[in-house]
Amino acid sequence: MDETAGIVIAGGGLVGAALALALRTSAHGVTLLEARSFDAVDADARVIALSHGSRLLLERLGAWQALTDVTAINTIVVSQQRRFGRVELSASEAGVPALGYVARYSALRRALIGVLSTSAVKVINGCVVRDFKGDADGAVLTVECAGATRAFAAQLAVLADGGDGLRLAHVEERDYRQSAVVCDITSDAPHQNRAFERFTPHGPLALLPTTLGWSLVWTLPPARAREISALDDAHFCTELQAAFGGSLGKLRIAGARQVFPLKLKYARRPRARRVVLIGNAAQSLHPVAGQGFNLGLRDAWELAVALRDTRDPGDFATLNTYFTERRFDRTATILFTDTLIRLFSNNIPLLDRLTGTSLFLLGGIPHAKNLLVRRMMFGANG
Ligand SMILES: Cc1cc2nc3c(=O)[nH]c(=O)nc-3n(C[C@H](O)[C@H](O)[C@H](O)COP(=O)(O)OP(=O)(O)OC[C@H]3O[C@@H](n4cnc5c(N)ncnc54)[C@H](O)[C@@H]3O)c2cc1C
Hints:
- The chain has 382 residues and is α+β, with helices and mostly antiparallel strands.
- It has helices spanning 14-22, 38-42, 52-61, 91-94, 105-116, 222-229, 233-244, 292-307, 316-344, 349-362, 366-378, and strands at residues 3-10, 30-34, 47-51, 71-73, 75-80, 86-90, 100-104, 122-125, 127-134, 139-145, 148-159, 169-187, 194-200, 203-209, 214-220, 251-253, 258-270, 275-277, 283-284.
- It has 11 helices and 19 strands.
- The mean pLDDT is 88.
C-alpha cells in the first residue's frame, strides 16, 4: 500500500475542505485529495450566499475569520415577473444583524484551505480518485496522481467530489432542464445590502450584493442560457434589463459569464461499506434560495461530530446513525427548494396567478415571513 490514513476525503471543494477542518484535531489521520490544481479551483465564478447558521459554523472552524471580501445581506426582495406580488424580508424585522452573507466560492475555499495548511491534515492537489473498494476490515482507494497510480488504505472514505465522479450510491436524479448563467454586474443604484430573487416563468433570477456590485444567477432553459451567454455585452444587458426591470437603473456586465447545468440529485444509502457521501455528492439542489453549500456544510459538521469519539471511523453503526440523523434536514431542504421552483417558476397561468397572490399575502403575515427567514438562515432545523 502506498499511503495509509484513518480518513481519506475525496474532493477538496468547499464541503470536503470544511470536513477536513472540522476533523483537524481528530486522532484519526486525515488526508484530503483534490483533483484540480489550486488555481483551477480559484477560477470558479460562483458566489455563495451563506446563511447565518453557516457563519456560526465557519466561525467555529476558524475560516470565517480568514475570509476576506464578505458582503452582508440585510434585505431580501422576492418578486415575480408580470405579477404584483412582492415580499421584503429584513434583518431588523427578524431581529438579527444580517439575513446572510455573500462570499466568492474561491475566497471561501482559500479561507478553508488557508486554515487547513496550519493543521496536521495532509492536503494533496492534482490527485483524482478513480476507484474505491470497502469491506468490514478497511477501504482502498485507487488514486491517479501526476500520471502515476497510487493506492490509499483508509478506515473511512468520504466522498465530497461534488457528485460528478464516483458513483457508490444509488442516485435519484431529476433534470430541471435549466442552466444558471453567472456573472458580475454593476448598476446605477448601489446595492445597499439588498438581495433580489425574481421568479420568471423560465426560472428564478437572483442578484446578490458583492463588493463589485452584484453577482447575477440567472436561470433559463439550457438552449436559451447558451444563447444569452453568447450575446455581446450590450445585448446581454438589454435581455437582463427586460427580465429584471428598471428598479436598479441601468445594469452593466462586469465580468466573464459561466453557465452551470442544473439537476436535482439525491443519493440513497451508499452501496459499499466504509464510505459516506457529503455535500453535492450526497445531494445537489437548485441554487434558488442558495441552500446547497449551507446544507453541505451541515453534513460536514454533523459527520465530524459523529466521528469525534469513535475508535473506528468506518464503523457501520456510526455511519448508519449519521445517515439516519441527516435525513430530515436533507429531505426538508430539498423539498423547500424544489417546491419554490415548481410553484414560482412555471408557465401554468392559474398557478402563476395564485403564487403572485400568495407572495402578496405573505408580505402581510409576519409569522409566515419569519418562518421563511428562519428556514433561509438556519435550514430545516432553524
Ligand atoms: C450557479 C450556482 C449558484 C450557487 N449558489 C449557492 C448559494 O448561494 N448558496 C449555497 O449554499 N449554495 C450555492 N450553490 C451550491 C454550491 O455551489 C454547492 O452546494 C457547493 O459548492 C457544494 O460543495 P461540494 O464541496 O460538495 O462540491 P464542489 O464545490 O463541486 O467540490 C467538489 C470538488 O471535488 C473535486 N473532485 C471531483 N471529482 C474528484 C475525484 N474523483 N477525486 C478527487 N477530487 C474530485 C472537484 O475538483 C471539486 O473541487 C450554487 C450552485 C450553483 C451551480
